Each structure stands twice: as C-alpha cells, then as structure tokens.
Amino acid sequence: MRMSKLVRTGADFLYPAVLIFGLYIVAHGHLTPGGGFQGGAVIATGAALVIVAYSYTEVRQWLSGKVLMGQEVIGLMGFIGVALLAFAFGQVFFFNYLNASGSLFGIPVPYGINAGELNTGGFVPLMNFAVGIEVWGGLTLVILYMLSGIRKEVS
Amino acid sequence: MKKTVVLMGSLLIICAFLGVAALNLTFGVPKITDMDDYFLRFGQEQTGTNNQCTSVTFDFRGFDTLGESTVLFCAVIGVALMFRKMQEGEEHEDE
After folding, report:
1. What global pTM score does this model have?
2. B6-15: b or e for each residue (b if 16 or more CB lie within 10 Å)?
3. Which of A80, B8, B54, B93 is spaced 20 to 30 Å from B38 by Cα?
4. Residue A9 is part of which domain span?
C-alpha cells in the first residue's frame, strides 16, 4: 500500500534533510542545544517518514532489523568502551582524558563567552556519536516492531 | 459515585498541599548553589564544552547517561520480545 508519487517524491527529498539535520544535532551536541539522544530521535523520525510514504513490506526489504540491532549494540558498547579507555590513560572511569590534550577534539576552551570550535569537548563528541547511533537504531527498531504487529490489518 | 467523590476529595487535598508548598518557594533563587556555581565556573575548562547541559549529562554525570542508554536498550529488547511471534508470521497461542 504505497502512497501517491507526490508523497513518495516528497519523502525522497525530505529524508536526506532529516538525516543531515539529525547528524548535525549529534555532531554539535557539545556546542548547541541537543545531543546524542535528540539527534538520534530526529533520525528515527526520518525512518517513520519513509515507512509512511512507502509501504512497510517494501521498506522491510532493504531495512534489516539485524543491522539496526547491531547499530544499537555498537552504540552502547562504544559508549562504554570510550569511558573505559580512561583506564589506559591512568585515570578513573568516565574521566575526560581527551580534553585540552591537543589531539582529537582537544582544543582547550577558555572560561566565558567564546565563538565555539567544533574540535573541542574531549570525549563528549565521541559519546554523543555513540549514543546517537544507539538511539537511531533503537527507536527505528521500536517503530518497525510495532508496525509489524498491525501489519495484517493494514494490508 | 461515592468512590468518585472520595477520589476527587483526596486529589483536591493533595493539590492544596502541593500548591501551598509551591507558593512558598522563591522562584529562580535556590538556597544552595555550590554545585551549580562549580559547574558554570569550571565546566568549560574541565570538559571543553560550551553547552553546559551536555557537559553535565556526558561528563560530570556520565553514569546517569550510561544507565539511560541501558534502559533504552532493555526497552527495545522488551518490545522485540513482545512482537517476536508476529515478526515470524505466527499467531499467538491465545488467539
């Protein structure tokens, strides 16, 4: 049960915009309002848009539940792994070892109002990406599972 | 009917208690601000994030976010368990 060509074309145009907006919220989590949870939820809404425009069975052919489950597991494991890496630097669990180190995301930030540099934040951007990937996979999986329950009545 | 009256009455009493308690609060002026002042003063230098909400949720209170992620994971597992039979195209035993 697909929607009309107008709706499908609109979804085709809107889905990349939703994806980019969600990834922007995830990537700028340490500078602007938002973060991993919010950005992941935005991307999962894009999946709902595609499912509305195309049918559930058609989306199911190229959107595998295993991939989304793997995404969720990788997100959670990445989150814990980034936090555990602090032990390698001789620090305690959840210590921000990358902050002001000069390497990745390591530009020091002064106190007060500043312009905001994307390459700051220590491990916070990495955490944001991990949580974003996890929420993306998890919420999309919830939508797919709940749709599979009402599939017979729809089609 | 009697149950409804009792329910409404108890709800009213609870609301009155909460309302009196809320009216006595001074809005925007908390009594103890040591923790807030510390986060606002040293958050940028210690975590490198301009967004102080993210610095609290992902750095100062990282364990909270860890639990939140785990709760989300468990919720998805629960939904998957609920709809597992329907996913395979089988009927439930009750139907």
Report:
1. 0.82
2. eeeeeeeeee
3. A80
4. 5-154
**Angstrom distances, CA of residue A9 to CA of A12, A15, A47, A51, A124:** 5, 10, 15, 13, 37
pLDDT in tens, A12-71: 999 999 999 999 999 998 898 888 899 999 999 999 999 989 888 888 888 888 899 999
CB contact under 8 A, B59 and A122: yes
pLDDT tens string B58-85: 888 889 999 999 999 999 999 888 887 6
Q: Whole domain around residue B46: which residue ranges? A: 2-87
CB B41 to CB A111 under 8 A? yes
Residue B82 lies in a domain: yes
Total number of domains in chain A: 1
Query: Chain B: nearest CA to A13, how far in angstroms?
Result: 29
Distance from CA of B89 to the nearest CA of A (A): 9
Residue B92 belongs to some domain of the structure: no
Please answer yes or no on whether A31 and B47 come within 8 Å at the CB atom.
no
Q: Give the total number of structural domains in chain B.
A: 1
